[in-house]
Design a protein that fits this description.
24% strand; six-stranded parallel beta sheet; alpha/beta; globular; five-stranded parallel beta sheet; single chain
């Protein structure tokens, strides 16, 4: 197919992206393809559109509920004539497509996690005025219309997961682990640098397994070394490593290369041997502690982000207290947590009874996060008086909003910088920390 690229005459398409940053990358690719097909593309606009495309999340109960709520809001808008068509894509649609088709017939089309490029052809074919035989239709899956801040972009290096943890539906949605070639990722980052981006969050469902399917060995270190060599790459930050079969050589790259952030997002989920075994995490408590000790030994000053789960079958009060002691001991710089929610089709749903009531799960979650807030306050306080580098994300009325190398967009603390001189969003500056809050730092320009 060949389509007009100006975007003047085509339909106005609003993209709504739910869930994780990996979903966001797919939404950004879709936006570029739609724009190349002649559509007028907007991202999460409240100004109305001809067509709405909802990229759904289907990871846990709350995310599925948000996806359904968003779909129904747009179905209602369509019924009132505010939108002409509504399409649904992504993880929820991939997993429950037949059910959704039966239950929400008002939707004009459902696409899953991997076939959504067909949505572009469907939209373009309905609007022949966008066609132009002189301009080839762009079917590249790696062209992007980046929606994030002035400096940063997400780079997805793999899709899928082979781990099959007992609680997780991701392998049921995404399928087997599949790495992208190093050269292809390099080309994408070079293109993003040429477009003005300098900070890259490297993401996948499982960073630790990168390359094993393509090269027969764990290759994350080789990839990050190559990306760090690209002129214009100021920060590289690693997200979603898996603790079992961890690629230790990437730590040596992190220590050597100043543009590889001393930051690692590694979901641990628990520390109790009994719970870890039930979760099918392929690692025990002793091995977890050894891994964390080695990470901190090899990369002094590293900031670790982890995710923990409460309420999984087998977690009694003893196991929960063990988890609290583990958090006190490790003092994670960044930590999130959630309560177990049974997901149909998973090993946990098939083999364990979800016997812990919601009230107990919430009590444990609240206690865990209260402890982490205290730890975060103490760690943040240690930065008062120090000079640190920040990137400026935005300007508010009274201050600039920035982040350090230890702060990933959206999920980590921000640095609020007093307006003592002009700072430019997307640029990097040294600031002096003057005050610390649990999830924010206050600073002034050096």
């Amino acid at each position: 197919m060949r389509c007009h690229k100006s975007g003047i005459n085509g339909p106005k398409v609003n993209i709504i992206s739910l869930g994780c940053s990996k979903n966001l990358v797919d939404s950004e690719r879709l936006m570029k393809m739609l724009e190349d097909a002649g559509c007028r593309v907007e991202f999460e606009s409240d100004q109305g559109a001809d067509i709405a495309v909802i990229n759904t999340c289907g990871f846990i109960g709350d995310a599925k509920e948000e996806s359904i709520d968003t779909i129904m809001q747009h179905v209602d808008a369509k019924s009132r004539g505010l939108i002409k068509k509504v399409y649904v894509m992504g993880c929820l649609s991939e997993r429950y497509r037949d059910d959704l088709i039966a239950e929400i017939p008002e939707i004009d089309g459902f696409y899953g996690k991997f076939d959504w490029s067909g949505l572009v052809e469907e939209i373009a074919s309905q609007h022949p005025q966008t066609r132009d035989d002189k301009v080839p239709f762009n079917t590249s899956m790696y062209g992007r219309k980046v929606t994030t801040g002035p400096s940063h972009a997400f780079v997805k290096i793999a899709e899928g997961c082979n781990r099959y943890c007992a609680f997780c539906a991701i392998p049921l949605i995404t399928g087997r682990f599949k790495s992208r070639p190093i050269e292809e990722i390099e080309d994408e980052v070079k293109s993003l640098v040429a477009s003005g981006y300098s900070e890259f969050n490297i993401i996948a469902q499982d960073l630790s397994s990168y390359g094993i399917d393509l090269y027969g060995e764990l290759s994350l270190a080789s990839l990050i070394e190559r990306l760090a060599d690209i002129d214009g790459v100021h920060w590289l930050r690693l997200h979603y490593a898996y603790p079992a079969q961890f690629p230790y050589d990437v730590l040596d790259v992190m220590r050597r290369r100043p543009n590889v952030c001393a930051y690692l997002d590694i979901a641990l989920q628990h520390i109790s041997d009994n719970v870890l075994d039930n979760m099918r995490r392929h690692i025990n408590g002793r091995q977890t502690r050894e891994l964390l000790a080695e990470i901190r030994r090899r990369v002094p000053g590293i900031h670790l982000r982890t995710t923990l789960m409460v309420g999984f079958p087998g977690e009694g009060e003893k196991e929960f207290e063990e988890l609290l002691d583990f958090v006190r001991e490790q003092r994670f710089e960044r930590m999130g947590a959630f309560a177990y929610c049974e997901e149909e089709g998973t090993f946990g749903a098939k083999n364990f009874k979800d016997a812990i009531d919601d009230e107990t799960k919430q009590r444990r979650l609240d206690k865990l996060m209260t402890l982490q807030e205290e730890i975060s306050q103490e760690i943040q306080q240690q930065k008062v008086g120090s000079n640190i580098e920040v990137v400026i994300d935005s300007e508010e009325e009274d201050y600039y909003v920035g982040r350090t190398q230890w702060d990933s967009p959206e999920v980590d603390p921000q640095v609020l910088i007093k307006k003592q001189r002009t700072l430019i969003p997307g640029q990097y500056y040294m600031v002096k920390v003057t005050e610390a809050l649990p999830f924010e730092l206050i600073a002034e320009p050096c």
